[in-house]
Give the backbone structure.
Amino acid sequence: MVGYAFMGAAHSQGWRTAGRVFDLPLRPAMNAVCGRDATAVRAAARKLGWAAAETDWRQLIARDDVQLVDICTPGDSHAEIAVAALEAGKHVLCEKPLANSVAEAQAMVRAAEAALTRGQIAMVGFNYRRTPALALARRMVAAGRIGTLRHVRATYLQDWLVDPTAPMGWRLRREHAGSGALGDLGAHIVDLAQHLAGERLTGVSAVTATFVAERPLSDGGRGRVTVDDAALFTGRFASGALASFETSRAAAGRKNSLRIELNGERGSLAFDLERLNELSFHDQTEPADAAGFRRILVTEPDHPYLKAWWPPGHGLGYEHTFVHQARDLVQAIATGAPPEPSFADGLQVQRVLAAVEESAAKNSVHTPVPA
Amino acid sequence: MVGYAFMGAAHSQGWRTAGRVFDLPLRPAMNAVCGRDATAVRAAARKLGWAAAETDWRQLIARDDVQLVDICTPGDSHAEIAVAALEAGKHVLCEKPLANSVAEAQAMVRAAEAALTRGQIAMVGFNYRRTPALALARRMVAAGRIGTLRHVRATYLQDWLVDPTAPMGWRLRREHAGSGALGDLGAHIVDLAQHLAGERLTGVSAVTATFVAERPLSDGGRGRVTVDDAALFTGRFASGALASFETSRAAAGRKNSLRIELNGERGSLAFDLERLNELSFHDQTEPADAAGFRRILVTEPDHPYLKAWWPPGHGLGYEHTFVHQARDLVQAIATGAPPEPSFADGLQVQRVLAAVEESAAKNSVHTPVPA
Amino acid sequence: MVGYAFMGAAHSQGWRTAGRVFDLPLRPAMNAVCGRDATAVRAAARKLGWAAAETDWRQLIARDDVQLVDICTPGDSHAEIAVAALEAGKHVLCEKPLANSVAEAQAMVRAAEAALTRGQIAMVGFNYRRTPALALARRMVAAGRIGTLRHVRATYLQDWLVDPTAPMGWRLRREHAGSGALGDLGAHIVDLAQHLAGERLTGVSAVTATFVAERPLSDGGRGRVTVDDAALFTGRFASGALASFETSRAAAGRKNSLRIELNGERGSLAFDLERLNELSFHDQTEPADAAGFRRILVTEPDHPYLKAWWPPGHGLGYEHTFVHQARDLVQAIATGAPPEPSFADGLQVQRVLAAVEESAAKNSVHTPVPA
Amino acid sequence: MVGYAFMGAAHSQGWRTAGRVFDLPLRPAMNAVCGRDATAVRAAARKLGWAAAETDWRQLIARDDVQLVDICTPGDSHAEIAVAALEAGKHVLCEKPLANSVAEAQAMVRAAEAALTRGQIAMVGFNYRRTPALALARRMVAAGRIGTLRHVRATYLQDWLVDPTAPMGWRLRREHAGSGALGDLGAHIVDLAQHLAGERLTGVSAVTATFVAERPLSDGGRGRVTVDDAALFTGRFASGALASFETSRAAAGRKNSLRIELNGERGSLAFDLERLNELSFHDQTEPADAAGFRRILVTEPDHPYLKAWWPPGHGLGYEHTFVHQARDLVQAIATGAPPEPSFADGLQVQRVLAAVEESAAKNSVHTPVPA
């Protein structure tokens, strides 16, 4: 694993737990973690349960006891590490967004496709797909429970930048983060919207904003914010369905509020990450006098991933998405099946994000997403 | 009153009740109702409690015992009736949207402004402003409880057109209705967004769709739908705040789902018409460990309109907005104060709707709203 | 109508509105209202829309233009007025609880039964039965949608006595009010539990409390509270189902929180008066992976009382229960059908309340409710 | 650890994770697990991550590398194992309810008190106390945020026995399980009510029921159910506050529905285990026009246990209570501080359960809980 901060801790929990809960065809071993600060990475290895620590990701890749490289670094290093790992014959799991640019993502897809012919798996970490409620939503859409799709509406709101005195940081600089709320949060809802809908966006129209132009530096000066605080966009699907997206880090009181709703001719589905064990479903085919959105508590053995966990009504949390991701990746490696979401899926999301930025720069004009 | 269908019944309930609940400076008398079908209008007069029935709105306006004309007809007749009533020296209440075009609305504003100099009141029926929870929201925004505004997000969803076999009707023809979900539902959320924010939209970017192009006629044939089923648009305020709007009549399971949320630097407010006695408020200035969206049950004597009604916890319904509208209009007439919302407010909403349609026709490009 | 305070205003709204919304076989005329203070009752008559005012209820009953007497006074006068009115040949609507004692209620039932043979109707005002969502719940129970009943759980909580400095008043004196939260609020949930279940309680076990023993008088002194602040009791149905009840006026933040849930072998129903347009329904016969409590928005034309009101999604409020009560009473008078709930139903609730007080006085021992 | 079924898996997850998330003064080692079936326990050891497997709990206790014995067996073996382990000088964690009888629990308390003088810790597994939202609730009550307590109301409902054809099992036999819903679910809400209130119940009044008297055996016959399906009871606190409790395994649609609410003079708190990352708080001291139950998303670094986990808004699940339990137990062992909840706390809960059964057997008469 490369990187050991928030994402690194979450991934570690996933690797540590997956084989203890699910019956896996292969047993993951947490052999080495990598970070630039030798002292810190050794402490992290001890705390998180990695057998060894490295300070250079090239050394990590070179290790014989590493068959899978899990990339949890900021977006500007994804491409270089992932391509090198794939070329070195390793499987790769890469955090989202796949890269900071379409060009980087394209290079990663080429490397992944070549690697796949050698039996290597490359997966991008859109972990929310593994939330049982959203996996159930996908199953229900695929089974025709909502019929022809008309609308997708998705918001992903946080509030840690609503305070204008919150400090400057790398996530607010374009050169490191690629974009702001758009890449950090928007990438998730673009992926989910397309994954749940089972189809892709053909174009978008967008507006973005940076509400606070400068923020305090640790040295007492002020630094210029070069990414968006918020991005709003509409999207069109090939089928004619419409989508709306909004993401912001300045929505007071919304801590990690990812909401997504799909409306179809035969029904609707709605989800809220702050209540992640629930899925709302409206069945339009029921008699009107007894119809209504039902709150499915997604904790039944017949629900995705749930048979391995606790009895009905005993809910899961955020980190379980990483346990499920680890389980699905191990399954893919064992069977050689093409992984989902693939690097190609990650590239396509990147193309949507690029179209959003282009539209925002061109007065919101509708901007196609290349196929 | 002209028209006696859904809106006419709701307005009648308002006129009948306002003086029984509030202490009004003037007592409204329900002297005459007007409709084209003589038998039907007489039955409506009897049922709804109007003393007389007319079949020609010109006759209604000509009556000496009519000082206020309440227009509840489809949008294509608003301008003619309202202008004539104002020129005849009557006060006017006109249902929203004010007109089917900006040009008609401009003529109405001119007539209203001339009439105001003669002490006549002209008000447009954006009744949802009179929901106590939304009146409280406006009061809290004005008092600075949410601080500098960052986001408004509003949706107004219904589902009576989600079934592709639902029949053709006048609301689906542009020549009568002006537009579809946009004018019917979108007008409300545009008015509310601006009213609550206390500022106006400067431009919009929009996409609209008609999901079902033809619908069955009563004669067995098929009629072409010439209005939108759904409209999605983003908007910008002069202050730099962003807005998102979505309205549809094809959102399965959403019966009359008007939701609006405002996020500011110091707090957030959220409202859902399906739970109209509640207002959600998050106070960002509270200590983080005890902060959260609170559900204010808007039934206290200190809440707008509530002192005249029931004890705390005894909720109101949809029609009360019309009782409050009647009360506020009577107050305005008695005091001669300029009414809110005025015809000029109605015209401005019309300009936003026109900009939405223009943007949708021009590949979603950002389209300014004339001041 | 006798009495013109809170209940009088609510009943007036019911009488004024019922014929304007529903097609009634008889048209109610609001001929006279009665109260002891001549000035105040005249003002109330003017405000609420009653043609005449009386200061002695005997005079009211003696009027030829009064065929129905609507009793909205405190409980200690119900029996005398109701019996006199029935003996004078009038129909009677009496607010709940029917009386302050079982003996009074028995006398009222005798008078009502005698009157029924003369074609007179006597109804007790358990208005919450007329909430569309609860009428729908009753319909679903009767249709077998929840199967054999196992549990009823009901709470009715308010908070206007949580403040120990809230003043003394007649509602806190046993000689006027009969009991405290028990008769005021508990009567409603006992009636609803039995009405929805379709069966009667056979016995109860109870505890009551008065948290604040003395309260300030307007003269600066302190008065002794002689009624309960709260009552908790369990109940048993003949079928073996169990019930739990809790009512309090000292539940901080609960303004008018009447909640009731029924669990049966085939499903469950849940209701919350603070969201009175909604009914929650769980269908236990559905596949487990798609089951869950659904929120039925009770605003469809097929729902009880709703065809006469607004389109789907346009909710009603508290006072509509009185409109529906007026409508049902007029229907009963026109058809001569035995009314529901009858005085006998009111007496039976009184017997439950008496058993609650007896159990509370006897160390909570299970106390039978006489049949 | 003794036992490796549902509770064993949950405890294993706790032991495996605690040191990876929290900075612990001691590192737990998962040295041995014990079960009667040699094959099954070896498989469980491999799956759950225990280094060795034993088939006799006496052997487990005899191991030198075992300093802490974690008892996850049915209630009828708790006393024997716990007393033996304590006498052998081990620390003990014992699942709830502490025992199947007061006598057994008393013996366990004696052993624990003797052991404490030797520096051994004995804790009972009321894990829900470690839910961050409930730990926050306790903190707020202790800080006086709800003032003098008036009401506690708690329900714990499941539905796996609502189906009358659900099979017989050991949990339905008194000799193994001690009681039914009462001990399994009721023990939790009794502990929580007292823990959150910060005071103990002085007496109870109860009714219990077994709705389905016989259930199918695996051999085709029918077995007699000798425990309760449901228990309802009221309780009194020394302070005069009242409590209501209801627990059932026959509440259709309620999967694991533990709800608890406290009302005090200055505020109220409410919790629902199905939404375990949320705590509702009403502050009665706020101005009435802005007051309401606020939904605190209990995911902030200042909330109990949360600094070690994820950023705000990223929720935890059921099993985290076991991680927190492991962490708190390790802290207690390292510091020698008396543990909470102690065996004495477990005994006191047992006394409440015994009083419930006694009251139910004596016509619900109020039954004191011995101090």
In short: Chain C is about 35% helix and 25% strand. Chain C has a mean pLDDT of 96.
